[in-house]
Amino acid sequence: QGEYRLSACVDAACSEGTVTVERYVLPRFGVELSPERSWLIPGQPVRVGVDATYTFGEPVAGARVHATLAQLEEEYVRDEEGRYLETQLVPGRPLVELRAQTDASGHVDLELDTEELELGSPATLEVEITDGAGHARSRTLSVPVTEASLQVQLIPEGGRLVLGAPTPLWVVTTYPDGSPAQATVHLTGLERAVRT
After folding, report:
1. How distant, in Å, are the alpha carbons of 30, 50, 177 from that of 59?
2. pTM for this predicted structure
3. Sequence-ordered list of residues with C-beta below 8 angstroms from that of 142, at least 6 positions apart, any chain
4. In sequence order, which residues have a C-beta less than 8 Å from that of residue 177 and are 6 or more positions away?
5. CA dist 11 → 8, 14, 83 (Å)
6. Of 20-24, 35-39, 182-186, which gets the smallest average pLDDT?
């Protein structure tokens, strides 16, 4: 335990830094979040299951639950002279705050109102659990905000369409989180549907 100074050199280039070594404290309990879907659609509520379990396997029963849903906002990072360096996403003001309590099995279902979400940037869901002894653990999810549950893309073979030339098209259907979705797609001009 304590502070240690590290240095590394490659040829003539050297770099140094300080690291602090502290005793590892095992978390007293874990928190798992299980949203019914891994994306949010403004105006469509979403249910999230929360489970808290002590490291020795017992449920964290009767724990206080505090959940906050916020939309990420752009923040401009500037240097000392005010010059723009980069843009980063940071949590904005809380749009939804819920308080609840876990049941005897360490579980609680939360229903989040998504009415105030806007398209364009993801949202964060932070859930903090505090047990009867005052120990707290939190878990945060970043969730995309989209207007539809299914994304459909038509991708021309070769990357582009050429006027007057027959070009095969790939039909790709995914959920907003990028995972593949099986779907039946009806394309104008085709007598049959395409199954993805």
Report:
1. 10, 12, 30
2. 0.69
3. 72, 122, 123, 124
4. 38, 39, 144
5. 10, 8, 34
6. 20-24
